[in-house]
Specification:
The strands form two sheets. A six-stranded antiparallel sheet has the order 5-4-3-8-7-6, with helices on both faces. The longest helix has 22 residues, at 113-134. A hairpin with a 4-residue loop joins strand 3 and strand 4 (397-404). It has helices at 15-24, 31-41, 48-55, 59-71, 84-102, 113-134, 141-150, 155-161, 163-175, 180-187, 192-203, 207-218, 220-230, 235-244, 246-252, 257-269, 276-289, 293-311, 344-357, 367-380, 421-428, 440-443, 449-454, 486-507; strands spanning 29-30, 105-106, 385-392, 397-404, 414-416, 432-435, 460-467, 470-478. The protein starts with 14 loop residues before the first helix and ends with a helix. With 511 residues, the chain is an alpha+beta fold. The chain folds into three domains: 29-110, no CATH class; 112-334, Hypothetical protein af1432 (Orthogonal Bundle), CATH 1.10.3210; 344-507, GAF domain (Beta-Lactamase, 2-Layer Sandwich). The protein is built from 24 helices and eight strands.
Amino acid sequence: MPIETKVPSQIPPTLEGWVKLLDSIRLPVPKLSHDRVMAAINDSRRSMRDIAELMQGSPALVLSVIREANHSANASQAEPAESLEVALNRLGLTRTGQLLARLPALPDIDIPPVLRQFQLISQHASQQASGLFASRLARLWQEIHWGSLLFLAPLWPLAMVHPRLLDAWELRVIHKGEDAAHVEQELFGVRIMQLCRAVAEHWRLPGWVTQGYRLLLEERDQLAKTLSIAREEDPLVQQHRLDEEPGLRRWFNQPANTVLLANGLALAAQVGWDNPHLLRWQLLTSLYLQTSLDDVQQQVHQQAAASARQHASHALFHPAVALLWPWDQRRPHPDMLAPPAPASEDIDRWRKLCTELLAQPSPFTNAIHLSTQARDALLACGMQRIMLLMLDKANNSLRVLQTAGLPREAAALHMPVEGNKLLQRLTSQPAQLRLTPENHAQFGALMPAALRACFDGEHLLLRSLAVNGQVLMLAIADQGGKPLADVSVQAFGKTTPCIERALAAFGNRNA
């Protein structure tokens, strides 16, 4: 079955709509893993355990097999497969081979990086679970291993179709400390945990996965009480408080909670090793294992290093790398980092394009020819998302001439100027506006909704392009929503006068 690559432009309005969308996505499998497993299936000398071990290198492959087994006709009334080996035995080698033949196999470089990053977090969580808990609960090691690997699986297709939504959630909730409920309702229309639980139930993932989401959604009071006990520094006080609440002790000591603890540790470590989110999960793990916080932290660091040795990729971030950083340093969100300055060859190309814009007489045959050159010059100076709009004075509106780095539908935008104070100001006389986090709340709200949807960051340049004081065009540009590089801002400021002179020369070409 071909991979679903088209990203829906609309956000599903309901939880059921989200489940239907995510269920329809075919996750890509690394080609190397796919080929190895297919070869093993076709080799009569390989055992089911051998095949299961080979599959572990691809979380998407594991998920596909377990989903298929749990949705098969003869399994509809059976308990969900709690491990990959159970799923393989339920399907049989023939059906497993048929399933693999339908899955898209892609080189690692062609798999979306946000999806690969989430799968790396899941692999890290599985390593933490195996290292911290599996030896103590040896008879349950398979449930621990597979449950922890698949806990975040409902987010994998979301990372495939709406990676910018997840990026925006991380930036606003983790790095800026905004209220998660408000942000999730605004971005997704539903709470993330509700969505994950609904997808996990629909896929019939192992019971420990859905139990973890139920805890986060319905049993937060018990979790808060347990965390309060875990914060006690004296182990004897901890024991005394637990003895006073035997029901809470039984609830917390359930083996299924190891899946949630491991994923909490792995997710929080993505931000940094010295942050309150990670400390909470370390304290809870310490209480669960009945050992000191120092011991848990040492074990967690060791398991992170072990995970990095197996799963790290130069193109992805693994928290083990941050163990070498200063202790209080955190991984910044990519949108908080300014892009690098344009390379020397890009600057050379930018100079060449600006020289051509200044040529006399005008070398351009029409407005599209000129605006294409203008767009290319802005790209060469480091801008990543660009929109050039022509002012239609007769209809008092703006229509798009050129775009770069934006969805295809952006090229069809046609916006009335009347009724929008920001557009009225920019089209009435030459002006430039630079949006920053400090003024975004004031000016970003004045942008038409269609423009806000195209330029979703807090860093943006808007510039009127005029001839003899009369505005003809509007240039909008940013660097993917990230803080703007100073060199690129300066180059933008030098490019726009070149475009204006090109517009003037073009208007006088027949004089």
